[in-house]
Design goal:
This protein is an alpha/beta fold. Among the domains are: about 90 residues, Ubiquitin-like (UB roll), CATH 3.10.20; about 140 residues, Domain of unknown function (DUF4445) (Nucleotidyltransferase, domain 5), CATH 3.30.420. Helix content is about 30%, strand content about 25%. It has 14 helices and 24 strands. The strands form 5 sheets. Strands 1, 2, 3, 4, 5 and 6 form a 6-stranded mixed sheet that branches. A hairpin with a 2-residue loop joins strand 16 and strand 17. Helix 5 packs across helix 6, helix 7 crosses helix 13 and helix 9 crosses helix 14. The protein is globular and about 60 Å long. The relative contact order is 0.12. The model has no long low-confidence stretch (mean pLDDT about 90).
């Protein structure tokens, strides 16, 4: 019998060689593994000492000499072969909940209840009593241990049926219990998450023609508790966008408007003054830090802003901590800075002759943010190119210009829109006005929590929106290739 000491206070017995990630999972500790445990993203770093397997080739590729010296291992690669001590970073809140709904004209049917937004990466919830916020919860979606995006999780589900559904149901049930199981509960989420939550087959959502088993917009029992699940629009435009369209009020005037959710799924809604259209681009989680060598959520230790001041490159770190990574907003900024100083060319290549182009621990070119150990590698830039080109091309496929551009999501609320234009994430001079709205899914879910009429509006809206597929759209494909340039 071996013994694993998890986070130095939880002892967990096991009897055979076991991956550290599996030990953490059994002990109830969830660790992010965007690459689904393939050892390629480097996001599951833990401090591990004791009887351990030798470093794998993948660990030697990703870990620096300094990290190896400090007993850092990849939880998805290293195995416990005897007694071990594992210290892992617990899943801390990664999204701020900050909006005001008091002036929204809502006919109140309820004043109490719980609204939950299930994102691919993050789950956020707010508990209300008498229209006042009494509790906020935000935590990483436990499913991130099995892939960064919905496509990878659909693929995982084929090999491990029901595991992801059970995991999500357990997490939502725990959140509901922590909020004393209120009678009035509204849940918003993307289409795939709602199918996982209700235990329905997700495989049709992962391959053409991408069909839905359910559009939702009604009550479901989640672990014995009745919850209203807001309606979806299409396979990859979910209830979070339905809620966001209502929350932004983008379709209430005669002016054109667009709502862009800069999250993992890259969902876009466009109102031309009379009708609504939606689409979704395969942006992936790059701008949320997943798959980026030193990318991380917006929490203490993350560089969230980079700028040039007095000919010097400056940066800001969340929590005034030692910088150990970079968030999505910081990534946008640093790419714009790299372009400005000439270390990054239009094709996305690092100019190796530039004095600020350095070498990483494998001797490959990188850009290191001055006075930090945080770097952007050539492989990071390629992933970011794919993501920004998908968003840019998706926007222009729906419209050449709009009067107002709304940016939703935690990432969208923090980015510098000028820098986003500079790197080609957003079209230049596209909108007369750009407004960052934050978590519109949670905002719209709050409106539905209070009002039966809002729920009816959501259902009507979801039926009347026209969905524009991009997977075989030649115009989108041409734009996508063109917008790879910086």
């Amino acid at each position: 019998m071996f013994e694993a000491n998890i986070n130095e206070n939880l002892f967990f017995p096991f009897s055979e060689e076991t991956l550290l990630s599996e030990l953490l999972r059994r002990a109830g500790e969830n660790i992010s593994m965007p690459c689904a445990g393939n050892g390629t993203c480097g996001k599951c770093k833990v401090i591990a000492t004791g009887s351990l397997s030798s470093l794998t080739q993948k660990e030697q590729t990703i870990l620096t000499d300094e990290e190896i010296k400090n007993n850092i291992r990849l939880a998805c690669q290293a195995k416990a072969t005897g007694n071990v001590t594992i210290t892992a970073e617990t899943l801390a809140p990664v999204v701020e909940i900050d909006f005001s709904w008091e002036d929204y004209p809502v006919p109140y049917d309820y004043t109490d209840g719980l609204v939950i937004d299930i994102g691919t990466t993050t789950i956020a919830a707010i508990l209300y009593e008498n229209k006042e916020i009494v509790k906020k919860i935000t935590e990483e979606n436990y499913q991130t241990a099995y892939g960064a995006d919905v496509i990878s999780r659909i693929a995982f589900d084929k090999e491990h049926p029901n595991l992801l559904s059970n995991l999500l149901q357990k997490q939502i049930s725990e959140i509901i219990t922590r909020c004393d199981t209120p009678k009035n509960i509204v849940i918003v989420a993307n289409t795939v998450m709602l199918h996982f939550l209700t235990g329905q087959d997700v495989s049709p959502l992962g391959e053409a023609p991408y069909t839905l088993t359910d559009f939702f917009g009604k009550e479901y029992s989640i672990d014995g508790v009745n919850c209203y699940l807001a309606p979806c629009i299409s396979a990859f435009v979910g209830a979070d966008i339905t809620a966001g369209i209502l929350a932004s009020r983008m379709a209430e005037s005669k002016e054109s408007a667009m709502l862009v959710d800069l999250g993992t799924n890259g969902e876009i809604a466009y109102f031309d003054g009379s009708a609504l259209y939606t689409t979704s681009t395969a942006a992936g989680p790059a701008f949320e830090g997943a798959g980026i060598f030193m990318g991380m959520p917006a929490k203490p230790g993350a560089i969230d802003r980079v700028w040039i001041e007095n000919s010097e490159i400056s940066h800001h770190v969340i929590g005034d901590a030692i910088p150990r990574g970079i968030s999505g907003s910081g990534i946008v900024d640093v790419l714009a800075v790299m372009k400005t100083i000439g270390v990054l060319d239009e094709s996305g290549c690092l100019i190796e002759e530039h004095p600020l182009c350095q070498r990483d621990h494998h001797g490959k070119p990188c850009f290191r943010i001055p006075d930090t150990d945080v770097m952007i590698r050539a492989s990071d830039i390629r992933k970011l190119q794919l993501a920004k080109a998908a968003i840019h091309a998706g926007i222009l496929t729906l419209a050449n210009k709009v009067d107002t551009l709304y940016l939703s999501g935690g990432f969208g609320a923090k980015i510098n829109s000028n820098n986003a234009e500079a790197i080609g994430l957003l079209p230049k001079n596209f909108a007369k006005t750009t407004k960052a709205l934050g978590n519109t899914a949670l905002f719209g879910g709050t409106l539905a929590l209070f009002s039966k009429d809002i729920r009816k509006q959501m259902s009507e809206l979801s039926r009347n929106v026209k969905s524009i597929p991009l997977n075989q759209n030649p115009y989108f494909t041409g734009l996508y290739i063109d917008k790879m340039q910086f």
